[in-house]
Design goal:
Length: 827
């Protein structure tokens, strides 16, 4: 028991023992701050902090642990500071009640009240001292439906009317002056999206075809720039290792720089994945999916209350899949489990524990092919087969195992103050043994053996204190936050090119090359730490909402690179190299919501990303920065299940690395890129029977500074200027003959782009067609009321196309036709 738990009953404390496992002090005197709820948070911090045992002997790890505890204690102190007597504070008359993370538009023509005029009932404006539960009291009644700790399966439509991705607080779309898109679970299921990348291929402004043929990672671009993935508001690893799409309730995209809220990142935006959460209503489903190349998938999802008063909820999601890949000698296999539990001791407090385990036993690395032979015919007028495998079947063993555990804690103190803390620990373990393409010719490729070991630990915590109050005619939604991340990681590498470079002919590949031993020859240890402090205020004046935000980030980087000494078999022990970066970013915006549902808006935002390394003179690189100016319009017409958004933007990215013309092998930060464009996105939910998602993107990128002769003013590689998509389903609900049938189809168009920096070779445009059919078996028999079957076909014509090229020697085929049949039962 914590030492401070023995204090007087009327005063409990946060206790951080100075002799905790991460402290070098000998004193056992506790550091205490008064507040009962903060005490609970502190205990959870110490509990999770005690599990930070990986790499305990690694330099910098002890500091990382102290930083984690400091950030966690900050959250507890925020709670302690916010526990104010509401009788001494102005009671909030905010027009915006608490909203769930995403409100999915329901069926029916119910007129929505614009956000600026929504009013809280007198019953909901309860005093913070009323109806408090004592230790001897029975558990309270179930939480209200808008409890932010509760969610429901997102299977009711395509339209989101609120989101948290653009402000880290639940904000109505018409009150947020940022461009966002949401792909709901219903849309993911209707389209049978096999990955997050596929789920986003009908989203305006998102390029989901970059390196699409890669089976290991997911590369999505937003407004022309690679975007990183987040899970439940916390950043996943930069490598964007694919996360199981069946474990998600939805996928949100925040377009444009987002460093003011999320820290270091891309100027294009972020992709935030939301895990499936426990539901108050009992729910369950099981499905079996079968497809081409022996594909077989089984999945289940069960959720509901664990006790009568619904103060404890649970959810358990599981997936198993197996089959062959489109490329010879490759597999598509995965095991995924995700349990979660929500505990609600009272209507103001919720703790959701989230965990997941994912194992991909047979992955395949990038398979780059030359421009000649993929985009244009190669030898003898032939094209390289999409099935061509560039490795060796007998040295093809790459796997990834990942587990993640964390929590989301929320507490509403009173009508003014609320607190949220998100924590996650993730471990990623990767083993790679491959023969990889190294130098690509037009007929054959030189290859090398690659043996790599990766181990990545990610510790993250984000504390947010929110205050909703009024100052005269202004309604404020103020948020103060502190987040911290520590990413110690290890990479071991061994390469061997043999004596013949393991040549492989693209058109007549012969396997079975004699492969020598390939031990590890280098080991790289890294410690990356980042801490950010941010402040945001969304101010409402009638129907006008104005958003201001600022953030300061400090990043610390340390690396040691060891090399094998063949004579001794030992590795060198060089000193650690270190680099520190600091950046302050800002955002501001305004939006006005008219009665008609039209809401014009404008915003400015910034991004930064540390760049590791030094130039020829030994000067550390400075962060890459990004700026965006955006203006647009949103439309949510009252009484219609329709959402429309349009935006125009200009993004500049500076301090990009480019080759040093005076010192070969080195780089300088003299490159800049600018991307201007416009987007339109339309979504409907059962509007005259149609669920629809449509989008168009125009992008005009150009290189504004570079050391490449003739490169200024050119388009960056693989940035198409035009993209359009339309997906729709129609449900026959009112006809006796076709009742229970849902037909769907989609068209995806991606315009041409360039494969080289001087824009002399073009990657052609392509158009893909998708189809779906789903039938509710309950339409033919009441005993089958909860059963349905579906058929999905993607790339119906089996079109051969190149989705992107990094260079003339590195082009990547897109996926061919896939056909999946699914049978599902819900209970």
């Amino acid at each position: 028991m914590s030492p401070c738990r023995e204090a007087k009953p009327r005063r409990q404390f946060i206790c951080l023992n100075q002799n905790d496992p991460f402290s070098t002090r000998d004193s056992r005197k506790p550091i205490c701050v008064g507040d009962p709820l903060a005490n609970v948070v502190a205990d959870r911090c110490l509990e999770f902090g005690g599990s930070m045992s990986v790499g305990s002997d690694r330099p910098g790890t002890r500091t990382a642990r102290r930083n984690y505890l400091a950030a966690c204690a900050t959250g507890a102190l925020l709670i302690s500071g916010a526990g104010l007597d509401a009788s001494h504070a102005q009671q909030s008359q905010s027009s915006n009640p608490d909203l769930p993370p995403v409100v999915v538009q329901q069926d029916g023509n119910v007129r929505r009240t614009p956000p600026a005029r929504e009013a809280r009932s007198a019953a909901s404006r309860r005093s913070p001292r009323v109806e408090r539960t004592t230790a001897a009291s029975p558990p309270p009644a179930p939480a209200r439906q808008t409890d932010p700790g509760i969610s429901v399966p997102g299977l009711n439509g395509y339209i989101a009317t609120a989101t948290s991705v653009g402000s880290k607080t639940n904000t109505p779309i018409l009150a947020l002056p940022r461009s966002t898109s949401t792909v709901t679970a219903q849309e993911i299921f209707d389209r049978d999206a096999a990955s997050v990348q596929e789920a986003l291929q009908y989203t305006a402004g998102v390029g989901g075809f970059f390196r699409q043929g890669n089976l290991t990672r997911e590369y999505n671009r937003v407004r022309g720039f690679e975007a990183f993935q987040y899970l439940d508001g916390l950043k996943l690893h930069d490598s964007n290792w694919g996360f199981e799409r069946y474990g998600l309730e939805r996928v949100d995209v925040l377009k444009g720089p987002a460093s003011t809220l999320y820290g270091q990142g891309s100027p294009g935006g972020i992709i935030d994945l939301t895990s499936k959460r426990p539901t108050e209503t009992p729910f369950g489903e099981a499905l079996l999916r079968m497809g081409l190349r022996g594909y077989l998938e089984g999945a289940f999802d069960v959720s509901g209350p664990a006790n009568e008063n619904k103060s404890v909820l649970y959810r358990f999601v599981g997936v198993g899949k197996m089959g062959d890949g489109e490329i010879d000698f490759t597999k598509n296999e995965r095991i995924f489990f995700a349990p979660s539990v929500t505990i609600r001791p009272n209507e103001d407090t919720s703790l959701t524990l989230l965990a997941s385990y994912q194992y991909d036993p047979h992955l395949t690395v990038l398979q780059p092919l030359p421009y000649v032979g993929t985009v244009v015919p190669g030898a003898n007028g032939q094209f390289i087969s999409r099935k061509t495998f560039l490795g060796e079947p007998n040295y093809h063993d790459t796997s990834k195992e990942s587990y993640r555990i964390g929590y989301e804690f929320k507490h509403q103190f009173n009508d003014i103050f609320s607190f949220q803390q998100n924590f996650a620990y993730q471990n990623i373990d990767i083993s790679l043994r491959e023969v990889q393409s190294r130098s690509t010719g037009n007929v054959s490729t030189q290859r090398q053996m690659a043996y790599q070991q990766y181990n990545i630990d990610i510790f993250q915590i984000d504390n947010r204190l929110k205050a909703d109050f009024e100052t005269g005619p202004l309604r404020h939604h103020v948020m103060f936050g502190v987040d911290y991340a520590s990413i110690p990681n290890y990479q071991g590498t061994g390469t061997n090119r043999g004596t013949s470079n393991f040549l492989l002919n693209y058109y007549t590949p012969l396997y079975g090359a004699a492969l020598p031993n390939n031990p590890l020859t280098t080991k790289r240890y890294q410690n990356v730490d980042q801490i950010g402090i941010y402040l945001q205020d969304r101010i409402e004046l009638g129907r006008l909402s104005v958003l201001f935000g600022a953030r300061n980030d400090t990043a610390h980087f340390a690396q040691q690179s060891q090399a094998l000494v063949p004579a001794t078999g030992n590795f060198t022990q060089p000193p650690w190299t270190r680099q520190n970066d600091n950046a302050t970013t800002y955002q501001a915006g305004a939006i006005y919501a008219f009665d008609s549902g039209v809401a014009p808006y404008v915003n400015y935002s910034q991004s930064f990303a540390p760049t590791i390394g030094t130039d020829f003179s030994g000067r550390p690189f400075i962060p890459v920065t990004g700026d965006q100016i955006e203006g647009g319009m949103k439309y949510l017409p009252p009484g219609m299940n329709l959402s429309l958004s349009a935006a125009g933007f200009n993004i500049t990215q500076k301090n990009v690395l480019t080759a040093d013309p005076l010192n070969p092998g080195y780089a300088v930060q003299t490159s800049s890129v600018e991307a201007s464009g416009a987007e339109i996105e339309v979504k409907t939910t059962r509007l005259y029977g149609f669920n629809s998602s449509a989008g168009y993107t125009y992008l005009a990128p150009k290189v504004t500074a570079t050391n490449t002769a003739g490169g200024i003013g050119k388009d960056p590689v693989s940035m198409p200027r035009h993209a359009a998509s339309l997906w729709t389903t129609y449900s026959f609900e009112d006809t006796s003959v076709l009742a229970g049938l849902t037909l769907g189809g989609g068209v995806r168009y991606v315009g041409s782009s360039f494969a080289d920096t001087l824009n002399t070779t073009e990657i052609p445009s392509f158009t893909l067609v998708d189809l779906s059919l789903r039938y509710r078996l309950g339409a033919i028999s009441a005993s089958l009321q909860n059963w349905d079957v579906a058929l999905n076909v993607k790339n119906l014509t089996d079109k051969r196309y190149v989705g992107s090229c990094d260079a003339l020697s590195q082009c990547y085929y897109g996926l061919g036709r896939t056909v999946d049949g699914t049978i599902r039962v819900r209970f």
